[in-house]
Amino acid sequence: MILTVDGLTFSYPGRDVLNDISFSVRQGDCISILGKNGTGKSTLLKCLDRILKPQAGTVMIEGQDSSRIPGIHLAQQIGYIAQHQQATHCTVFNAVLLGRKPYFKWDAGSRDLKIVDEVLRTMGLSPYAMRYLDELSGGELQKVVIARALSQQPRVLLMDEPTSNLDMKNQMDTARIINEIISRQHISVVVTMHDINLALRFATKFIFMKDGGIFAAGGRDIITRETICQVYGLDVDVHHFRGMPVIIPR
After folding, report:
1. N or C: which end of the chain has fewer CB within 10 A?
2. By the 8 A CB rule, do 21 and 5 touch?
C-alpha cells in the first residue's frame, strides 16, 4: 500500500470533525472523497498532509508513520493542492519551480529545471512560462497549481475540490489531466469532490463521508440511489449511459 489510514480522529475545539477514519490507497488508485459540505473532507486531506495533527490514528506512507517523517521528506512523498488559490505576481515557471523546493537547499539545479520544463509541457503550460499568475484565468491558474504539485514528484497527490471554481470545459480538462497524471507518473490521487458525475469520469474508488465518518466505500457499485439519498438527503435517479452511472436529482 502507498497510503494507509487507520483510526484517524480529529476535533476542533468544541467540535468533532473526523471519527475513526480508515482506508488504504494502492499505487495508481484515484479515490474520490464525496459528501455534503462540512462533513470533514477538506480536514481529512489536511490531516493526511500533516497540516493538521489528528488526536488519534495513524497515517502510513509506504509502511512509515508519516508523523515521524521529516517535513522535507514528507513533501517528497505527498503533494497537496488546496481548495482556494491566490494569484501572486510570480511567473508560471517560478511558481512551478517552487514544487522542487524539497529537493534543493539553496538553488535549483539542472535536473530541477528539466523537471519543471517537462511538467510545463505535460500540462500544456509552456507558452505561459513567463507570464505572471495574476494575469491568468481561473482554469490556467488551476493548471499551474497542479503543475507545481507534480514537480514535487509525489507518490500521493491530494487535491481539495480542484474543479470547484471552473467552467465545464476546464472541469473536463482537469479530469483528463488527473487521468493522465495517474497513467504517466504511476502515482495515486485522493481528491475531494462535490460533483459525483464528474468524479465518476476519472475516479476508480469512492468514499462517501457522513457526520465525520465513512458511510460507504468501494467502486462504482456503491453509487446507488439509496446511498446518495442517505448521504445527501436528496432523492435521485441513477441511470447508465455508455456504461457509466449518471446521477439525476428528482
Report:
1. C
2. yes
